[in-house]
Write a structure and sequence with these properties.
The protein is α/β, with parallel strands linked by helices. The chain folds into 2 domains: 9-147 and 284-325, Ribonuclease Z/Hydroxyacylglutathione hydrolase-like (Metallo-beta-lactamase, Chain A, 4-Layer Sandwich); 153-279, Rossmann fold, CATH 3.40.50. It is 22% helix and 25% strand. It has 7 helices and 19 strands. The strands form 3 sheets. The protein has a 7-stranded mixed sheet, covered by helices on one side. The longest helix is centred in the middle third of the chain and has 14 residues, at 153-166. The chain is globular. The relative contact order is 0.14. The structure holds zinc ion (2 copies).
Length: 336
Amino acid sequence: MKLKNANWLIKKKEGLYCIPGDFYIDPLYPVEKALITHAHTDHARPNNHFILGTKETIEIMKIRYAKSYCNNYQVVNYNSPLTINNIVITFIPAGHILGSSQILIEYNGYKFLISGDYKRVEDKTCKGYQNKKCDTFVTEATFGLPIFSHPSDKDEIKKLLESVNKNRQKPHLIGVYALGKCQRILSLLRDAGYDDTIYLHGALVKITDYYISQGIDIGKVKNTSDLNLSELKNQIILCPPSAIHDKWSRKFKNPIKGIVSGWMNIRQRIKQKNIQLPLIISDHADWNDILLTTKENNPDKVLVTHGREEALVFQLNKLGFEAKALNLLGYEDEYE
Ligand SMILES: [Zn+2]
Ligand SMILES: [Zn+2]
C-alpha cells in the first residue's frame, strides 16, 4: 500500500523545503542546499551555498550573478535520478526556457512533482515538456484563468512580419525578456522564413550568445550598441520591454512598438504600455494546458502556486482533485 504521508515537504519562508533531504526548491533567500528549476531570477537567486540544476541553468546563473551564483554546485542531467538521504530526485524537461526543469521528489514511495514554470507548446530553443505521474502535483498558475487561451505563436509571428512588410520605412522595436522569450522569438522568425539580420539591444546579447554557444539556431543577429540607430529602417530590433519607452528608443525614426507577452491579451495592459503591436506569446501553460497536464499526471493532490490560484483550485476540485493554493510569495510573472 502506498504511504500516504506527505508531510515531509513543507512550506517555509524561504520556499518549499524537503525535511529529510534538508534542501529547498527555488528558495527566495540564500540557503545551504537548493534545487533550482530554471534560471529566471525569481526562481534562481544568488548566494546559495550549494545548488543542483541542469548544466544550462547553472551556466546562465553564472553569467548573470558572476561569483555569487553559488559556492558549489552539482550538474543534474534530465531523467537521471539521483539520491540524497534516501530521497530520489529526478529533473524532467519543463519546456519553459533553455535548461528548465520540473523536479520529481520521491520518498517512501510518495511522489511530489514540482512543475517550476512550464509550457507544452513546441519551442525549438529548449527541450520539450514531458509529463509524469505523481501523488502531489505542485503547479504554477501564472495564466490560471479560463480567459487565458494562448493563440498560435506562429500566427502571432505572422502579424509581426505582416507589419514589417506593410511599413517598409519603419523600424520595429519589439520588447522581449532577455532569457527565453528573446531567443524563442528569433527562432520563430527564422522558422517563418525571415532571414534578414535581426538587431538586439545590448541587454539581450549575453544570454543570446549563450544560447548560440549551446547550438540553438537563431540566424544572424547584431548588437545595436555601436550602431547609428536612426539609420535602422525596415528592421526588427528586439529589446527589453522597459527599453520600449526609454531614451534609447527615441533614437529611432517613427518606430512601430510591440511587446511579446502572454499578458498582451489584456486590453488594459496594451493601453498602459502604449504599444501598437501586442503579440501574445507566452512561455507558460494556459488554462487548458494546466488542466490537461493535471489530468495526465493524475495526482491525488494539487497545490497551486504563483498565479491566479482561486479559479484553478475551484475547477480542479470540481474535477475531483484535492486542490489547494500554496500561497508562496515572491515568484513574479514578469518573465512572461
Ligand atoms: Zn520562468
Ligand atoms: Zn515562475
